[in-house]
Amino acid sequence: MLDYSETLTDHFLNPRNRGTLDSANALGEAGSVRSGNAFRLTLKIEAGQIAAAMFQSTGGGPEIAAGSALTELVIGRSLAEARRLDANAIEAALGGLPAEDRSAAEVAAEGLAAALKDYAQPPAFRAAQGLRVAQPLGVAPIRPALPSKTGAPRLSAEEERARVEAVLEEMRPRFRADGGDVAFHDILGPRVRVHLKGSCSGCQLAGLTLGGLQKRLAEELGRPVFVVPAPSR
């Protein structure tokens, strides 16, 4: 298990301000459902200050913790102060993040920037839009693929990596026939992270590629897995 700080663990187990904010007048979104890190931030801004904030995320522990920490950071701050908050500030508020999960802070910061940009729209446009009523994220987070048979002996980390590489090699002709390729990055718990290349990195093709690969890996590894794109190099 990755070495998460006590602060990050607390934010994940006891997330602050998670949900929808019916009185919101600013809304920002970042990440994507396909990548498993869709993020939505809603703010209530009064007299130039952020009076309330709530978030939603389809991500795992680091993403939920980052959203929770961000809402605590922004509530009570002026707009000018909020604009200065970035991924570094969110990461510091969590007591640090492993390099593999720093994208959680980056996505949360992007959501904040989008919400502040939304609030900065011209008054006439804002009046026409009214309150930003955020419903729950419209598409459920990606579900893990499940093996058809259970009860097989648990593989070691080295055995799992070898099997993932073997499956990628087996499926590589299919990837390349479509003008792309997929390279193994790492395994973090149920997440198998891969690099998408060429046409495989396009949104629609990425979904098809990852879905087929995820099903095949669940069978090979004998346990539920998510296959998601790795952070850009």
Task: Record keyword descriptors for this entry.
233 residues, alpha+beta, 3-stranded antiparallel beta sheet, 3-stranded mixed beta sheet, 8 helices, 6 strands, elongated
| Largest sheet geometry | 3 strands, antiparallel
Distance linking N and C termini: 23 Å
Query: How much helical structure, as a percent, in the residues?
Result: 40-55%
Q: State the total count of DSSP E strands.
A: 6
| Spatial strand order of the main sheet | 1-2-3
Structure explained in plain terms:
It is a single chain. With 233 residues, the chain is an alpha+beta fold. Helix content is 42%, strand content 18%. It has helices at residues 6-13, 61-74, 79-83, 87-93, 103-119, 123-129, 157-177, 203-221; strands at 26-30, 39-46, 49-57, 180-188, 191-198, 226-229. The strands form two sheets. Strands 1-2-3 form a three-stranded antiparallel sheet. It has a three-stranded mixed sheet with strand order 4-5-6. Helix 1 crosses helix 2 (61-74), helix 4 (87-93) packs across helix 5 and helix 7 packs antiparallel against helix 8 (203-221). The radius of gyration is 20 Å and the shape is elongated. The model is unreliable at 138-142 (pLDDT under 50).
